[in-house]
UniProtKB/TrEMBL annotation:
Database matches in Pfam families: Aminotran_5 (PF00266)
Domain of life: Bacteria
Protein's organism: Variovorax paradoxus
Protein's name according to its UniProt entry: Putative cysteine desulfurase
The enzyme's E.C. designation: 2.8.1.7
Top EC class for this record: transferase
Keywords for this protein: Pyridoxal phosphate, Transferase
Domain Aminotransferase class V intervals: 40-418
Length: 431
């Protein structure tokens, strides 16, 4: 395994034999649930599912027993939850703290923002224009409710992200909370989280920091030993898992801030009501898969090391797919050279981007383009300025809309070539 994945600026595809094994582990890669052939390139909205995750969900959720008992099945469910909690820490390289299992990552973000905003002194709160509404609206709500100034970092229309300097210039000794997204779900641009955390804490050493990692977690490495934040969330349904689950981690100091909980529970306990053991079982299946993949590239046996190897090669493979989409190959013209197509926010350094593209067509709008793709068996998604999920971000870039293209590492170079040919066909409709 490369010690630094920047050694491969154009990425590195998974070997063919391994790629076949990867694809066998996912559902619906080539056909939808009705058996219709398609390319599903909307993984930023909800990723392909691991067969093992779906099967484990059904197996564990079928168990009627309450985990808060002392008999053998209850203990088994407790073990499932404990292992899943450990696996969240494996993904994040987190130590200690509290794991919070919720119905959605969005709900957890509101809860984390509330706990910090209501209990940490300060006159201002800092976030960015590229945040998901669950983070931005939570920050807006509690800033207004508590009479605090909300400071919003502007986007960079060249990189599609947020400059470190733009964020840290808004932080001062009176900032009670900094909330930042790990990677944009519009442009795919990754924020330099290590520099953001380090420089913000140089200004205020005890600053509380929250991170939305929902978009980035399936695509690249997270290391809380290098980026020690106070809360971070992810969504298994965007990480090869199942819907109806959000998983978050809170630092020891954030976890004990006053929050909604039963009075008899420990100060750092965040779950309300009976746990759903399947949430933890599914997360373990996700980590098992990434570790299995990593085992093809390292001799290490420790779970975090295997996970690091696996997620690193997922990132490298996806970077190679992104390079094909942008620059093409001997079999297909890339979108950078395709007449009638524009790639938005097209930053040259692919190591700073997750596998998300925003594109537009010269003579048809993005909504019509999505319809044309669907006619040809391709699922993509329009991000438009009329949507609450896109308006703020798109306007910061000066865009009215974009067709978001988001494959996954289980897609192949051949899939990219097929997509490029269909894109060229749609572009030709305008002539």
């Amino acid at each position: 395994m490369a010690s630094d994945n920047k050694q491969y600026p154009q990425g590195l595809v998974l070997p063919d034999a391994l790629m076949r094994e990867v694809q066998q582990r996912f559902l619906g890669l080539d056909r939808d649930h009705h058996g219709r052939e398609r390319l599903y390139f909307d993984n930023a909205g909800g990723s392909f599912r691991l067969k093992a995750a779906v099967e484990r969900f059904a197996e564990v959720d079928a168990i009627p027993d309450n985990a808060e008992r002392i008999h053998a099945t209850a203990v088994e469910l407790q073990d499932i939850q404990a292992r899943g909690s450990d696996d969240l820490r494996t993904i994040l390289n987190a130590q200690g703290g509290s794991v919070y299992a919720s119905f959605s990552a969005s709900g957890a973000m509101f809860d984390m923002v509330r706990a910090i905003a209501e209990n940490v002194p300060g006159t201002n709160m800092v976030t960015t224009v590229l945040e998901h509404p669950s983070a931005f609206d939570a920050m807006s709500l509690y800033a207004e409710r508590l009479g605090r100034e909300l400071r919003v970092a502007a986007s960079n229309p060249v990189t599609g992200g947020i400059d470190v300097e733009e964020i840290v210039r808004l932080v001062d000794k009176d900032t009670c909370l900094l909330n930042v997204i790990y990677a944009s779900n519009i442009s795919g641009a990754k924020l330099d989280m290590e520099a953001i955390v380090r420089r913000a804490r140089e200004i205020k050493p005890d600053l509380y920091i929250l991170v939305d990692a929902v978009q980035h977690a399936p695509h690249g490495l997270i290391d809380l030993q290098k980026t020690p934040v106070d809360g971070i969330n992810l969504a298994p349904y965007k990480f090869f898992g199942c819907r109806g689950s959000g998983l978050s981690w809170l630092s020891d100091r954030a976890a004990v801030l006053p929050h909604h909980k039963l009075a008899g529970k420990k100060p750092g306990y965040w779950d309300l009501g009976s746990s759903a053991p399947w949430q933890f079982a599914v997360l373990t299946e996700i980590v098992d898969y990434v570790c299995w993949l990593g085992g093809h590239f390292t001799d290490a046996t420790e779970r975090r090391a295997l996970f690091v190897a696996g997620i690193t090669h997922i990132e490298l493979h996806e970077r190679a797919l992104l390079a094909v989409l942008l620059d093409g190959n001997a079999n297909a013209t890339g979108m950078r050279e395709m007449r009638g197509v524009e790639v938005f926010l097209d930053h040259e350094d692919l190591s700073r981007r997750d596998l998300i593209l925003g594109i537009g067509f010269e003579r048809i709008d993005c909504t019509q383009a999505v319809v044309e793709y669907a006619k040809r068996g391709v699922t993509v998604y329009e991000r438009v300025a009329t949507s609450i999920y896109s308006k703020r971000m798109l306007e910061s870039f000066g865009l009215a809309g974009t067709v978001r293209v988001s494959p996954l590492h289980c897609n192949s170079v051949a899939d990219m070539e097929k997509f490029l040919r269909i894109t060229q066909e749609i572009a030709a409709l305008q002539a």
